[in-house]
Amino acid sequence: MKSKILIVDDEENIRFGFKMILADQGHDVMTAMDFDSALKIISDFNPDLIITDIILGGYTGIDLLHEIKNRELTCPVIMITGEPNMETSTEAVRLGAFDYITKPIRKEALLRITTHGLKHKQLLDNKKQLEMDNLRVRHKMEAIFQSLKDAVITIDHNLQVIEANDATKNICGFSAKDIIGKNFAEVQTYCDKSCMDIVKKTLKTQKTIGEVRIECRHSEQNRQVVLLTGSPLRQGGSKSPGMVLVVRDITKLTNLERQLKERHQFHRIIGKSSRMQKLYALVENLSETDSTALITGETGTGKELVAHAIHYNSPRKEKPFVKVNCSALAENLLESELFGHVKGAFTGAVQNKTGRFQMGAALMGQVKTVANRGVQPYLHRFCATSWQDNPAGKGYLT
């Protein structure tokens, strides 16, 4: 397509001469003798290049430059004048004039400055097109990003959250606006941040870690199971600016698999009957709570195995597990065994003895599990037990 060039000058011979020279080069040349006619042509044809005189009757080329800037047009403007001065040249450059030349203008100079101006216009158009294309792509990617059902969180090397999508709220329990710009490790959440290991490992190794299955310890979403994928962000440079964490909620799928798949054993308990399946489910649910658990049963039915299963499938599995065989203790020694004694407390107390409760408390600040053997029940967390016979022949728990 021909380049559209507008010549604005109050001298007819200059308008005619410039038009003849530039038209011979294949350009579409339009002319205007004053400010108003120039604005009309600009509005109707949007020229690629404007060559204007400084003096335009009651207006100036500077006024025209102001109007072009206000309309946010990208066409370069070349200012020409027969009376150059520092004030007008400075103002023209400040307002974005492409060049400022003085009369008389030779043919070679006119062609050279016109060629440079049109190349500049092409560069501006290309830049604008790229910006528009990038904006369209960004909007499309943003729409795709927000429509994903998986939670997607991008994190830089300082663990600062760059971006997060809407699914983060449903899966992780916190909205994007609450974490963007914050340190991911310090964000207050309802979960135990089991995903931090994947985040740190991905940032350190700069390698993709695919589909790590974990169970979120989440106070508001019981037994949530997710697949984590960590991948380094890629850019033109050699160093990655961070990583992207993808969290896929597979809780429903896991529950379905659990229902469809009959388990033959759980922890160290073996059995595949329907009653054993119910027991496994009960132990799993109980492991998530901090409530006291009382386990009863005849000798040899596996009360201790159940106590182990509850403890080692719970968030407390790394904490101490204290056991007491109450049935092997004489009645007069039970209190001493559980609560301890000091030297001289009774006959035979030749030295201080630490009780099982105190033993557990010394390890972690609280006793986790106390259990007895035989017909007597196992007690989980903060319970001591002894069984006695009352006159009616019925056992009671103290």
Which features does this protein show?
single chain, 398 residues, alpha+beta, Rossmann fold, Beta-Lactamase, 3 domains, five-stranded parallel sheet, five-stranded antiparallel sheet, 13 helices, 39% helix, rod-shaped, disordered C terminus
Give the % helix: 25-40%
Number of strands: 21
Number of helices: 13
Q: Which regions contain 5 or more consecutive residues with pLDDT less than 50?
A: 365-398
Main sheet: strands, sense, barrel: 5 strands, parallel
How many domain units? 3
Widest sheet: strand ordering: 2-1-3-6-7
Distance between the termini: 99 Å
Indicate the radius of gyration in whole angstroms. Answer: 41 Å
CATH superfamily of the largest domain: Response regulator
Strand content: 15-25%
Oligomer category: single chain
* CATH topology category name of the largest domain: Rossmann fold
Task: Give the overall silhouette.
Answer: rod-shaped
**Global mean pLDDT:** 80
Mind telling me which CATH architecture of the largest domain this is? 3-Layer(aba) Sandwich
CATH C-level of the largest domain = Alpha Beta
Structural class by secondary-structure content:
alpha+beta
Describe the structure.
With 398 residues, this protein is an alpha+beta fold. It folds into three domains: 4-141, Response regulator (Rossmann fold), CATH 3.40.50; 148-252, PAS domain (Beta-Lactamase, 2-Layer Sandwich); 262-397, P-loop containing nucleotide triphosphate hydrolases (Rossmann fold, 3-Layer(aba) Sandwich), CATH 3.40.50. 39% of the residues lie in helices and 22% in strands. It is built from 13 helices and 21 strands. The strands form seven sheets. It has a five-stranded parallel sheet with strand order 2-1-3-6-7, sandwiched between helices. It is rod-shaped and about 130 Å long.
